[in-house]
Amino acid sequence: MIRVPDSPRLGVLASGTGTILGAIIDAGLPVAAVIFDRPCPAVELAGRAGIAAEIVERDSYGQDFDRVAYTNRVVEALKGHAVDVVAMAGFGTVLSAPIFAVYEGRILNTHPALLPSFKGWHAVRDALAFGVKVTGTTVHVATEEVDAGPILAQEAVPIEPGDTEDSLHERIKAVERRLYPETIQLFLQNLDKGAAP
Ligand code: GRF
Predict the structure, then answer these.
(1) What distances in angstroms separate CA 137 from CA 5, 114, 169, one per listed residue?
(2) 3-state secondary structure of 12
(3) By the 8 A CB rule, do 191 and 1 touch?
(4) Is ligand 1 within 6 A of the CB of residue 90?
(5) 167 CB contacts (<8 Å, ≥6 apart)?
(6) Is 35 helix (H, G, I), strand (E, B) or coil?
(7) What φ, ψ does residue 178 adopt, rounded to 5°?
(8) What is the pTM of this model?
(9) What DSSP character marks residue 7?
């Protein structure tokens, strides 16, 4: 494991409403910067908290999207804020190899299902459609293979009669807003400290 400074700087990647980002900020974690892939409500949230916010805007959502070039732009933005550890919080773009080389073992993600079940962007919808009675959330180390890295924490969320994708996702996110900041905190505490990466 690469050593990080005594006070590691956290970079958050976000895209959406930003409630998970809000929970990370409220938990008092050392967020140095938030990077977004598009304009979204979470940008204002970071601004209100006085945290550096940078939009590294995707130039394409089509087949011509250059994922490696885009990933390099995100890495440069993170480096520009001297980020040591990255937390993904609903980031809507799958990143490719360069970020996993630079930040190997230091990128965390929260996923709204009990991995390895229901990988991918529609995890809540897929769990509901499959008819499972229990789903949940997983915090894991992100690797180049999507939703497949080592699991750090999991918590179950029962599916209730009449649940919709939105109602279930909101109950899962209520757990994520507690479990993810707690797990990031533990991860930061357990890192090998004492030197610049
Ligand atoms: C969370 O459920 C996260 O696990 C998923 O996207 C959602 C982000 O929620 N990847 P929010 O935009 O922070 O409210």
Answers:
(1) 30, 5, 10
(2) strand
(3) yes
(4) yes
(5) 160
(6) strand
(7) -95, -50
(8) 0.93
(9) S
Does ligand 1 lie within 6 Å of residue 177's CB atom?
no
Give the Cα-Cα-Cα angle 85, 87, 93 (nearest 5 degrees). 120
Q: Which amino acid is at 29?
A: L
Handedness of CA 95, 100, 105, 107 (dihedral sign): negative
Beta strands 134-141; 107-111: pairing state: antiparallel
Ligand 1 within 6 A of CB of 92: no
Predicted pLDDT of residue 2: 64
Tokens of 2: 């690469």
Q: How many C-beta neighbours within 10 Å does residue 75 have?
A: 21
Pair 112, 125: CB distance under 8 Å: no
Q: Is the pLDDT assigned to residue 192 strictly greater than 90? A: no
Q: How many residues does the chain have?
A: 197
pLDDT 10s digits, 96-125: 999 999 999 999 999 999 999 999 999 999
Amino acid identity for residue 96 in this structure: S
The model's pLDDT over 35-62, given as tens digits with 9 standing for 90+, comes to 999 998 889 999 999 999 999 999 899 9
Residue nearest to atom 14 of ligand 1 (CA): 19
Helix 165-190 to helix 123-130 angle, to the nearest 10 degrees? 120
